[in-house]
Structures are given as C-alpha cells and as structure tokens.
Amino acid sequence: MQWLEHKIPPPVIGALVGVAMWLVAPFGPALALAASTRHVAAAVLIAVALAFDIAGLLAFRASRTTINPLTPDRASALVTGGVYRITRNPMYVGLCFLLLAWAVHLSAWLPFLGPPIYVLCITRYQILPEERVLRRLFGEQYVQYTARVRRWL
Predict the structure, then answer these.
(1) Given pLDDT bands bounded at 50, 70 and 90, which one contains residue 7?
(2) Are 83 and 140 spatial neighbours (Cβ–Cβ below 8 Å)?
(3) Residue 7: CB partners within 8 Å, gap ≥ 6?
(4) pLDDT tens by residue, 48-103
(5) Residue 47 Cα to chain centre, angstroms
(6) Disulfide engineering: 45 pairs with which of 24, 25, 62, 101, CB 3.0-4.6 Å?
(7) How far is CA 131 from CA 21, 48, 81, in A?
(8) With b meaning 16 or more CB within 10 Å and e meaning fewer, what string describes 108-146?
(9) Taking the CB of residue 49, how many other CB atoms lie within 10 A of it?
(10) How many other CB atoms are found less than 10 A from the CB of residue 40?
(11) Could you tell me which of 133, 129, 127, 117 has the C-alpha nearest to residue 149?
C-alpha cells in the first residue's frame, strides 16, 4: 500500500481516528472517572498536545523549512533543536496527545484504541517515508540525529 504514503494529511488521519473513537465509544465499557477528573485530565493532555504542536511549528518556521508533511522532499533544513531534541516528530506526538484527550473525554475504554492505531498509521504512511526522504536529503547528519533522538517519545 505504498500508494498511500504522503497522500493523506496527518490531521485528516487524526480526525478520522477521532471520529472512529467517537463511534465505538458507546459499544464498550465506560471509564469510571468523575467528570471533574476527566475534564482536568483532558485539559492537561490538550495543553501538552498544543505545546508539542506549537513548538514543532515554531522550530520549522525559525529554520525556514516546509511544514507541509506531504512534501518532505522540499525540506531545506534539518531541524534538530528545541523540541526536536526530545522527539523527531513533535507535531505527530501532539496529535496523539489530542487523541488521548479525546479518549478521556469520551469516557469509555474502546476509544483508547485510537491513539495506538493513529501511531501505527502515521508511522507506516507518513514517518517511515519521510525518514527515507530525509536520509537522502541530509545523509549522515540525519542518521546521527536518528541515533540520538527517538521517533516518538
């Protein structure tokens, strides 16, 4: 299914997974959390998500390289500072945290399958193809970066 690589924007994949999470929520057992606990947990997860997303976007902007995940071949710089010292994919990590917040908000167990499904899909159809392109563009510098920094967290 190589034809799917770099074809669907990651936020669309996240939205599709989020809709699927919402659809399956009524079919499994409920998550027994007080509403206040659920709201605080979701808010914390959203704050973490936004921190990763914004830090990733700002680092790309500062380096004046493309933020379009569908065209990694247009990357003009290898961004390795800031949040990119923690994870090679902060914007995808941020989206995963948003899906976790959504699962908490839905207050059911089945939606918690969404974030791992998102991670598998993004890794296969976005990250691995991106890594091939970045390895070609930046060579040994990228290889050394991947040895220092994890793909996710």
Answers:
(1) confident
(2) no
(3) 70, 125
(4) 999 999 999 999 999 999 889 888 989 999 999 999 999 999 999 999 999 999 99
(5) 14
(6) 101
(7) 28, 25, 17
(8) bbbbbebbeebbebbeebbbebbbebbeebbeeebeebe
(9) 20
(10) 13
(11) 127
Quickly list DSSP for 93-150: HHHHHHHHHHHHHHTBSGGGGHHHHHHHHHIIIIIHHHHHHHHHHHHHHHHHHHHHS-
- What CA–CA distance (Å, rounded) separates 24 from 103? 11
Residues listed for the chain:
153
CA atoms of 15 and 89, how far apart (whole Å)? 18
Please give the distance of CA 93 from its chain centroid, rounded to a whole number.
4
Q: How far apart are CA 64 and CA 86, in angstroms?
A: 20
Total-model pTM: 0.94
